[in-house]
Amino acid sequence: MDPATGSAPPSEVSSLPTHDEALRLAYETHGPILLNYLLRLTSGNRGMAEDILQETLMRAWNHPEARTADGQWSRGWLFTVARRIAIDHIRAAQGRPVEQLDERLEERHAGADEIDRLINTREIRDAVARLPVRLRSALIEIYFQERSVAEAAQNLAVPEGTVKSRTFYALRALHEDLTTRGFTL
């Protein structure tokens, strides 16, 4: 540091990479290793792994203070951030229902006769109506109103865990009722 000017000598300034250069170097140096690590964490889901890698590097970009004294991001910091992002992505994916392709839905309903479908609909509605109010209201909120657990809990003024357990018991009671009436599920 030059005491007269308060700045670093030119040799010191040029030796440290700029923020952009450090990020590019982090991608070139750590990117392939991070991607392999993320592929293992995401069970081979390359798209998700690449998204997590990109988000990791964006966080590095937004946190220049995480750079080491030589101006580089440490591999440990990058791996820790990547692992935390991967956990968030995996948990979010587990919370969503599995998506079904249109082809499978068409196959399922292709053989159903319209009269049978109407009779089945009436039987299911009657079975839902026979449920206790506390179970029926949770089931209606989640499946018929297509609300999230949090929204249903707010509408019913009960905790989210209560909505989940009531939905579970409602489905079980509905299954038992329909099975005793001759439905095969």
Unreliable spans are 10-14
Order of helices and strands: HHHHHHHHH
- What is the CATH class of the largest domain? Mainly Alpha
Profile the largest sheet: none
Provide a count of the helices.
9
* Percentage of residues in DSSP E strands: under 5%
Determine the CATH topology of the largest domain.
Rna Polymerase Sigma Factor, Chain: A
Structural class: mainly alpha
Globally, the shape reads: elongated
Work out the number of β strands: 0
CATH level-4 homologous superfamily of the largest domain? RNA polymerase sigma factor, region 2, helix turn helix motif
Overall pLDDT:
80
Helix content: over 70%
CATH architecture of the largest domain: Orthogonal Bundle
Total domain count: 2
Tell me the distance between the termini.
78 Å
User: What radius of gyration results from the CA coordinates?
Assistant: 28 Å
GO molecular function: DNA binding; sigma factor activity
InterPro entries: RNA_pol_sigma-70-like, RNA_pol_sigma-70_dom, RNA_pol_sigma70_r2, RNA_pol_sigma70_r4_t2, RNA_pol_sigma_r2, RNA_pol_sigma_r3/r4-like, WH-like_DNA-bd_sf
Family: Belongs to the sigma-70 factor family. ECF subfamily.
Pfam families: Sigma70_r2, Sigma70_r4_2
Characterization of the model:
72% of the residues lie in helices and 0% in strands. The protein is elongated. It has nine helices and no strands. The protein starts with 9 loop residues before the first helix and ends in a 5-residue tail after the last helix. It is mostly helical and 185 residues long. The longest helix is centred in the first third of the chain and has 23 residues, at 19-41. It folds into two domains: 10-95, RNA polymerase sigma factor, region 2, helix turn helix motif (Rna Polymerase Sigma Factor, Chain: A, Orthogonal Bundle), CATH 1.10.1740; 113-180, Arc Repressor Mutant, subunit A, CATH 1.10.10.10. Residues 27-94 form the RNA polymerase sigma-70 region domain.
